[in-house]
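ARCHIVE CARD
Drawer: 12
Card no.: 0347
Subject: one protein chain, sequence and derived structure
Cross-reference: see card 0346
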Amino acid sequence: MNKDTELACHELLLCLAGRLPDDTLWRFRDWLGEGALEVLARTLPKSLLRHGIDLDQREYDLLVAALIPNGADFHELSSTLRVDDSPVSGYTFTETAPDRLNNVDSVSAVIDAALRGRPDVGDVRESWRYAERGSERDAKRVLLVTATTGWPRLTGELQRVLRVLGDEEPAIEVLPPQFDLPDYHLAALANARAVSVGAVGAGLGPATG
């Protein structure tokens, strides 16, 4: 797989966090981690159109860079470009887990054991995402990890771990260096707590823990 197209697709999927449905986004990331860019070239543009998700110029450029070399239809891709303002995500974030998990949550311990001191991994943090009109039952763990390489494969690995632990639609945000963070990730990081740290110094931004 071409590393440039792989990274472009990974960054695009980061930009789509909080916009594509969780059940769709994790599956696309799973396919990317397995190197199935040709499958994504067929399915991702159709999913954007089906869910009414328009892309800004930066996102559109990532879409073209990732999928045109893998057989995507250019005219289909061009239908996703928007000209108006960016949409608001509609989510809020908190560093505190829902009360129902305060005494029984083992996920953080498993993630710490998997990533502590790991080469190519920096900071590991988690935040809890709430829909503006949702309830505690709708709380979603968002895991934020910096890494210097292997982003799609690390995403896929952590998704599989969380699915084994009961999260059927894991939200794993593996962030490359110098990635211009979307508002969704900035909000999550501003309300996140430390879970673990790898062998690489990172600096994800504001967080507590």
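Annotation on reverse: The helical segments are 3-15, 22-33, 37-50, 57-67, 74-78, 107-115, 151-164, 183-189. The chain has a mean pLDDT of 89.
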